[in-house]
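A.,

Following up on our hallway conversation. Structure tokens first:
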């Protein structure tokens, strides 16, 4: 098998090591890539988008917690350590909204 980078036989130990090092250097160069976002602070839409970007990690974590909460409800029949088997549908919905708002507040998210 011929290496596309150095056109040598890849399975020869010396050349394989050379090709592997070349591939690792390419990966290291890719790690150095950066993205820069530019927001116009005088534009209200850009300010809103900037706030969304700042909160994206917290939003992801909140969604993960909400997903876990829903899975717990479906699999084990409980929300926030409360058994829902004896609750009415309305009480379960109220408990879900309460838990949802607790998660949103835990991450200091502004959904406005």
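Then the amino acids I'd put at each of the 112 positions:
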């Amino acid at each position: 098998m011929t290496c596309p980078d150095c056109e040598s036989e890849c399975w020869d130990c010396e050349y394989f090591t050379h090709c592997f090092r070349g591939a690792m250097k390419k990966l290291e160069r890719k790690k150095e890539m950066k993205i820069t976002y530019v927001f116009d602070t005088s534009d209200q839409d850009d300010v809103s988008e900037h706030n969304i970007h700042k909160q994206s990690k917290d939003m992801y974590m909140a969604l993960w917690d909400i997903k876990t909460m829903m899975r717990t409800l479906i699999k084990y029949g409980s929300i926030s350590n409360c058994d829902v088997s004896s609750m009415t549908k309305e009480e379960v919905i109220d408990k879900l909204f309460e838990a949802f708002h607790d998660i949103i507040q835990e991450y200091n998210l502004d959904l406005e």
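The radius of gyration is 26 Å. Curious whether your intuition agrees with the design.

B.
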